[in-house]
Design goal:
It is built from six helices and four strands, in the order E-E-H-E-H-E-H-H-H-H. By secondary structure, the protein is of the alpha+beta class. The two termini are about 30 Å apart.
Length: about 170
């Protein structure tokens, strides 16, 4: 499970930490849930965020996978609620739309825009972390409103990124 922590001061957005909560695949599912709860609580205690944004569940073909994902999300939400944080969920298409201007954007397009938006040298090591940072940025844009979101990311979404960075687009 990925996580990303942003600091927002005025119009400046800074990535404080991004990573992924990992555990041995052999662990019992309940032990994994405990690890998610504990590590989410540790991240909250380390950074003292105001809110938690999480990707909403989407429909999949594997019912067992969806059930496990729902439990994991519920445990992360419970950790936030225990620390009196408000929780907001965003659909995957909304996250992509917010970051790139295209709800069907690829993970690579989202990652490239995150590098541009945050002024990073490279994306976080894990795809899970990159996805989590995208959720956090989506929440920031939703919180600041459309006018401020366009201003804080340079306006224009993916097309502006391509226009401003032709050497980085393949």
């Amino acid at each position: 499970m990925g996580f990303g922590v942003l600091m927002v001061r005025s119009a400046k957005v800074t990535l404080l930490e991004a990573g992924a909560i990992r555990f041995p695949s052999a662990d019992d599912h309940t032990l994994k849930l405990r690890a998610i709860f504990r590590q989410t609580t540790e991240i909250i205690d380390r950074h003292h965020p105001d809110e938690l944004a999480i990707e909403a569940q989407f429909f999949g073909n594997n019912v067992q996978s969806m059930l496990k994902l729902g439990r994991a999300q519920g445990v992360a939400i419970a950790a936030a609620l225990q620390r009196d944080l408000s929780v907001v969920e965003y659909a995957p298409k909304r996250i992509k739309q917010s970051i790139t201007g295209n709800g069907n954007a690829s993970k690579e397009q989202v990652a490239a825009m995150l590098v541009s938006i945050l002024g990073l040298e490279r994306t976080p090591k894990s795809r899970d972390a990159t996805d989590a940072v995208a959720v956090a940025i989506c929440h920031h844009f939703a919180s600041t409103g459309p006018a401020n979101a366009a201003k804080s990311r340079g306006g224009g979404g993916w097309s502006a990124f391509m226009r401003n960075n032709p050497d980085r687009v393949i």
